UniProtKB/TrEMBL annotation:
It catalyses: ATP + protein L-histidine = ADP + protein N-phospho-L-histidine. Residues 206-271 form the Signal transduction histidine kinase subgroup 3 dimerisation and phosphoacceptor domain. Keywords: ATP-binding, Kinase, Membrane, Nucleotide-binding, Phosphoprotein, Transferase, Transmembrane, Transmembrane helix, Two-component regulatory system. One of its GO terms (cellular component) is membrane. It comes from the Bacteria. The keyword Nucleotide-binding applies. GO terms for molecular function: ATP binding; phosphorelay sensor kinase activity; protein dimerization activity. Its EC number is 2.7.13.3. It comes from Streptomyces pristinaespiralis (strain ATCC 25486 / DSM 40338 / CBS 914.69 / JCM 4507 / KCC S-0507 / NBRC 13074 / NRRL 2958 / 5647). This is histidine kinase.
C-alpha cells in the first residue's frame, strides 16, 4: 500500500508521515524527507510565521514598546524555525512552545501547529498533559499580555478552544493512520494465510495423488509380478497356459495404463468437490467388485465373495469408492503376504446401517514373505476410512490369519 496507490487514505496536507511510535513502525529507521515532506514543512513554517506576524502587529497596535515588540518578533521567529524538528522531538518542542507563548503572542501560531504534531506522533497521555499546560499558558498570556479588544475571559476561552481543536484534529489524524496501518497489517496477514492455505492444499493434493497411485497401481502390478514369476519358474509350461498368463499380463498392463490415465485426467480436470475426479467416480464404486475378484482368481488366488449389501445401486459414490479401495488393498496384501491361502471378501449393510467390508485370509503355510514398505497401504486405508466418517481395523487373528475390517457410513 503506497501513497500513490491509495491517496484517499492519507491525511490532509497538514498531516505528516507515520512516525516510529505508531503501531507497526517500532524499530524502523526514519525515512528520508520526500518532496511532499518539504512542501508540508514549508507550509507549516509559513503558516506559523503568518500567524506570528499578525500577533506581533496586534501587539504593536496595543501600545507595547518597540523593545517588547522586537523581543516578541524574535521569539516568534525562533518558535517558527523550531517547527522543523516537530517530527523528531514533538514533546520537547511542544513543551518549549508552551513556555514561550506564555509571554510571546507571536509564538502562538507555532504552538498550535506544535500541538497538532504532538497529537499526531504521540499517545494520549503526553498530549493531554501538554494540552492542559497550553491552556494554562493561554490564560497566563491573557493576563501578562492582555488584548485591549477582548476581555480576559474571552481570551482565555478562545485559547482553550484553539488548543482543543488542534489536539482533536491531530488525534483524528493519528487514529486514521493507525487504522491504515492496521488494515495494511491485516492484508499482509491475510496474504500470508492464503499462501499457507495454498501450500497446505498442494500438500493434501500430493498426498491424495500418492494414495490413489498406490491403491490403483499396486493391485495391477502385483498381478503382473505373479504371472511374470510363474512364466519365469515354469518355462516348460503348456503353450495354452503360457498364452493365458501372457494374456493376463497384457490385460493387467492395459488396465494399469487405463487407471493411470484416469488419475492424470482427474488431476487435469476441475475438482467436483468430493475429493475424487469424475473418472474415478464413474469406475471405482461397488460395481467392479466382481471383476476385481475375477482378476485375483486368474492370478491363482482362492477368493470367496460374499456380498449381501441390500441396495448396491443406492450406495453413495464416495462410500462405494472407499469400499472398493479397501477390498482392493485387502486382496493385494493377501496376495503379497499370504500367497496360496483362502481369502474371503464379504460386504454387508444397507441405508442407515452403513457398509461393513471384511477381508480375511488364512495363515500362510510357510514363511511370510517380507515385502519392503509393508503397512503403508493400510495406513492410507485407515486415513481414507476416517475421512469418509468411518473406521478401519486390521490385525492378526487368533489362528494366525489376517483380517481387515472397515465400517463406512451410509446415510438414508
Amino acid at each position: 500500500m503506497t501513497r500513490a496507490e491509495y491517496p484517499w487514505l492519507l491525511p490532509s496536507v497538514m498531516a505528516d508521515p507515520p512516525d516510529p511510535d505508531l503501531p507497526g513502525r517500532q524499530g524502523r529507521t526514519r525515512p528520508r524527507r520526500t518532496v511532499r515532506d518539504w512542501v508540508v514543512d514549508t507550509f507549516v513554517f509559513l503558516a506559523a510565521a503568518l500567524i506570528g506576524a499578525l500577533a506581533s502587529d496586534a501587539s504593536a497596535q496595543a501600545g507595547n514598546s518597540e523593545a517588547v515588540v522586537l523581543a516578541d518578533q524574535l521569539l516568534g521567529a525562533v518558535a517558527c524555525c523550531a517547527l522543523w524538528v516537530r517530527r523528531r522531538a514533538p514533546v520537547a518542542l511542544a513543551a518549549s512552545l508552551v513556555a514561550v507563548s506564555a509571554v510571546a503572542p507571536a509564538a502562538g501560531g507555532a504552538l498550535m501547529l506544535g500541538l497538532f504534531s504532538l497529537a499526531v506522533h504521540r499517545p494520549f497521555r503526553p498530549v493531554a498533559v501538554i494540552g492542559v499546560l497550553a491552556m494554562v499558558s493561554g490564560a497566563v498570556q491573557a493576563l501578562v499580555r492582555p488584548d485591549p479588544s477582548a476581555s480576559f475571559l474571552i481570551s482565555t476561552v478562545a485559547g482553550v478552544v484553539l488548543v482543543l481543536l488542534m489536539v482533536g484534529w491531530g488525534m483524528l489524524v493519528r487514529a486514521r493512520r493507525q487504522l491504515v496501518l492496521a488494515l495494511r497489517e491485516r492484508a499482509r496477514r491475510a496474504e500470508a494465510e492464503a499462501a499457507l492455505r495454498a501450500e497446505q492444499a498442494q500438500r493434501l493434493a500430493r498426498e491424495a495423488i500418492a494414495r490413489e497411485m498406490h491403491d490403483v497401481l499396486a493391485h495391477r502390478l502385483t498381478l503382473l509380478s505373479v504371472h511374470a514369476g510363474a512364466l519365469e519358474f515354469r518355462p516348460d509350461a503348456p503353450p495354452a497356459e503360457v498364452g493365458r498368463a501372457a494374456g493376463v499380463i497384457r490385460d493387467s498392463a492395459h488396465e494399469a495404463l487405463q487407471d493411470l490415465r484416469q488419475i492424470i485426467g482427474v488431476l487435469r480436470a476441475p475438482d467436483d468437490g468430493g475429493g475424487d475426479g469424475p473418472a474415478l467416480a464413474a469406475s471405482h464404486t461397488l460395481y467392479p467388485l466382481g471383476a476385481l475378484v475375477g482378476e485375483s482368481r486368474e492370478a491363482g488366488m482362492r477368493v470367496t465373495l460374499d456380498n449381501t449389501v441390500t441396495d448396491p445401486d443406492g450406495v453413495p459414490a464416495a462410500t462405494g469408492r472407499t469400499a472398493y479401495r479397501i477390498a482392493q488393498e485387502g486382496l493385494t496384501n493377501a496376495r503379497k503376504h499370504a500367497p496360496g491361502t483362502d481369502v474371503t471378501l464379504s460386504l454387508s449393510g444397507g441405508p442407515g446401517e452403513g457398509i461393513t467390508v471384511r477381508v480375511d485370509n488364512e495363515a500362510p503355510a510357510g514363511e511370510v514373505p517380507k515385502v519392503p514398505g509393508s503397512g503403508q497401504g493400510l495406513i492410507g486405508l485407515t486415513e481414507r476410512a476416517t475421512l469418509a466418517g468411518g473406521r478401519l481395523e486390521h490385525g492378526v487373528r487368533g489362528d494366525g490369519g489376517f483380517r481387515v475390517r472397515a465400517w463406512l457410513p451410509w446415510s438414508v
